């Protein structure tokens, strides 16, 4: 008899970006750059290192389990009542808490595919069934097909906008129609991990789209634009009753003391965050334009990465990049996601792409 659930064999493994020193050693290059995990390349925001250093003196005490100061701060910044906010150990943990709070065995979770690779892992591990709706030919969510896929067993639908890994974002009228069609009995999670990089005015702010819709949950993170990927803080905004239910399944004390302090300091540095995001967005335009000289099928991206729909050539392209000291993220048989880095890092990628495409 297996000691753990046999159905876990069907769960794909979460694959993280490779370590630059390992790749440099394997490829025989002096240094490798990592453009594989959608991080912003400019280091911690001002004030974060000091806040972490201060917080470390209190590590023998448990953190505030209700994360009150951070929820109040986020509430002020985003005009959301703090009782609607839940904070978690990264937004990926919150995505799992949402599903855990919503599904019973056999219930269904609808999402676009390809999308964030944690969705199938979370769905299966919570005992629910994944209903994957193929992206359109333009690598975007097919919201009408997703609404068609909703049944009486559907408890959660994820809308990932901008979508990881394709970078496409949903437009306001399409989202409104989707929410109208799905109705009030399905929790719709608008996963906006890359919201700060959006420049297309047609792309709605999920927090605004959620107004007056108690079934809509908005998921945000401090990992990407705010530069705290290694500290692990995410948050969600939901109807107070939904937020309360989710809090019941959150692992106690999951946002540690150091992380709460770092998040508050990062939020104090919003001007600098915006400046860095602007640099990334400028570089995104430059890199996408340059890559489109090589391939015309790169979709528009509103995130800090771009998608190369290379199909069966994905793994080979990624291996070729690694040989040239650039770590990108292949999705075998489908495509390659490339994070926008510093101008020098992007130049290195463009040189590799020029050789390989
Ligand atoms: N949602 C999406 C769409 C993501 O791409 C990611 C990170 N890859 C997350 C959520 C989770 O981010 P974190 O747990 O670092 O907040």
From TrEMBL:
The keyword Transferase applies. It holds the Pfam family Aminotran_1_2. Belongs to the class-II pyridoxal-phosphate-dependent aminotransferase family. Residues 32-351 form the Aminotransferase class I/classII large domain. It is an enzyme of class 2 (transferase). Its EC number is 2.6.1.57. The lineage of its organism: Bacteria, Bacillati, Actinomycetota, Actinomycetes, Cryptosporangiales. This is Aromatic amino acid aminotransferase. It catalyses: an aromatic L-alpha-amino acid + 2-oxoglutarate = an aromatic oxo-acid + L-glutamate. GO terms for molecular function: aromatic-amino-acid transaminase activity; histidinol-phosphate transaminase activity; pyridoxal phosphate binding. InterPro entries: Aminotrans_II_pyridoxalP_BS, Aminotransferase_I/II_large, ArAT, HisP_aminotrans, HistidinolP_aminotransfase, PyrdxlP-dep_Trfase, PyrdxlP-dep_Trfase_major, PyrdxlP-dep_Trfase_small. The keyword Transferase applies. Keywords: Aminotransferase, Pyridoxal phosphate, Transferase. The modification N6-(pyridoxal phosphate)lysine is found at residue 224. It comes from Cryptosporangium phraense. Its cofactor is pyridoxal 5'-phosphate. Aminotransferase that catalyzes the conversion of aromatic amino acids and 2-oxoglutarate into corresponding aromatic oxo acids and L-glutamate. The gene is hisC.
């Amino acid at each position: 008899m297996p000691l753990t659930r046999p159905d876990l064999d069907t769960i794909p493994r979460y694959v993280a970006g490779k370590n630059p020193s390992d790749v440099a050693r394997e490829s025989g290059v002096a240094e490798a750059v990592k453009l594989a995990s959608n991080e912003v390349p400019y280091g911690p925001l001002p004030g974060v290192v000091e806040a972490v250093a201060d917080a470390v003196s209190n590590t023998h005490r448990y953190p505030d389990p209700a994360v009150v100061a951070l929820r109040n701060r986020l509430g002020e910044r985003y005009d959301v009542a703090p009782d609607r906010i839940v904070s978690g150990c990264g937004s990926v943990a919150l995505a799992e808490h949402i599903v855990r709070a919503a599904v019973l065995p056999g219930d269904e979770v609808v999402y676009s595919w390809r999308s964030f690779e944690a969705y199938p892992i979370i769905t299966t591990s919570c005992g629910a069934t994944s209903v994957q709706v193929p992206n359109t030919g333009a690598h975007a969510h097919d919201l009408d097909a997703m609404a068609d896929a909703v049944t009486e067993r559907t408890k959660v639908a994820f809308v990932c906008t901008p979508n990881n890994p394709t970078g496409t974002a949903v437009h306001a009228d399409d989202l409104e129609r989707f929410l109208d069609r799905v109705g009030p009995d399905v929790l719709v999670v608008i996963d906006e991990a890359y919201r700060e990089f959006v420049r297309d005015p047609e792309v709605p702010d999920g927090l605004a789209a959620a107004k007056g819709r108690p079934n809509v949950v908005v998921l945000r993170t401090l990992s990407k634009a705010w530069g705290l990927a290694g500290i692990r803080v995410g948050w969600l905004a939901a109807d107070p009753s939904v937020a309360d239910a989710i809090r019941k399944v959150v692992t106690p004390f999951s946002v540690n003391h150091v992380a709460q302090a770092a998040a508050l300091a990062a939020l104090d540095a919003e001007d600098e965050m915006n400046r860095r995001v602007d640099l990334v967005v400028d570089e995104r335009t430059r890199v996408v334009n340059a890559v489109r000289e090589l391939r015309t099928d790169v979709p528009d991206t509103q995130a800090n990465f771009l998608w190369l729909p290379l199909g069966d050539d994905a793994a080979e392209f990624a291996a070729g990049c690694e040989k040239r000291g650039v770590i990108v993220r292949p999705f075998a048989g489908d495509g390659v996601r490339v994070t926008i880095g510093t101008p020098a890092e992007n130049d290195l990628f463009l040189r590799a792409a020029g050789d390989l495409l």
